[in-house]
């Protein structure tokens, strides 16, 4: 296993030092960019004041995005599994007819 490295992340004009495995650096930096953008958007709307409140609202927004995305993905997979099952049934019927 590789040694963790320290990555400096800038979120809402503050720097944070975070340790992570080298192979996860890109994902960590992408997550920090997404968090920063979400927090800036919330702050710029002007309805939420204070870093802690902005962070909580950002966490809720990102969690909601993740959960609704997972639900949509599960629905798509369920639909695809049903289509595959229907195709298998049709193939079985066609093969049965060809044997008659």
Radius of gyration: 23 Å
> What is the terminal separation in angstroms?
60 Å
Strand order of the largest sheet: 1-2
Helical residues, percent: over 70%
* Outline: elongated
Largest β-sheet summary: 2 strands, antiparallel
Total strands: the figure is 2
What portion of residues belong to β-strands?
Answer: 5-15%
> What is the residue-mean pLDDT, rounded to a whole number?
87
Q: How many DSSP helices?
A: 2
SS content category: alpha+beta
SSE order, one letter for each helix or strand: EEHH
Uncertain residue segments: none
Based on the model shown, name its key terms.
100 residues; alpha+beta; two-stranded antiparallel ribbon; 2 helices; elongated
Task: Note down, in words, how this protein is organized.
The protein is of the alpha+beta class and 100 residues long. Helix content is 70%, strand content 14%. The protein contains two helices and two strands; from the N terminus they run ββαα. It has helices spanning 25-45, 51-99; strands at 5-11, 14-20. Strands 1-2 form a two-stranded antiparallel ribbon. Helix 1 (25-45) crosses helix 2 (51-99). It is elongated, with a radius of gyration of 23 Å. The model has no long low-confidence stretch (mean pLDDT 87).
Describe the protein's topology:
Elements: E1 5-11, E2 14-20, H1 25-45, H2 51-99
Antiparallel strand pairs: 1-2
Helix pairs in contact: 1-2
In short:
This protein has 100 residues and is of the alpha+beta class.
């Amino acid at each position: 296993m590789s040694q963790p490295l320290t990555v400096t992340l800038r979120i809402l004009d503050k720097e944070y030092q975070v340790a992570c495995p080298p192979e996860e650096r890109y994902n960590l930096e992408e997550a920090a960019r997404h968090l920063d953008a979400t927090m800036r958007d919330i702050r710029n709307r002007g309805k939420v004041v204070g870093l802690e409140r902005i962070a909580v609202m950002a966490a809720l927004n990102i969690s909601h995005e993740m959960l609704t995305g997972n639900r949509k993905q599960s629905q798509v997979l369920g639909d695809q599994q049903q289509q595959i099952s229907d195709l298998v049934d049709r193939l079985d019927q066609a093969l049965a007819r060809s044997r008659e």
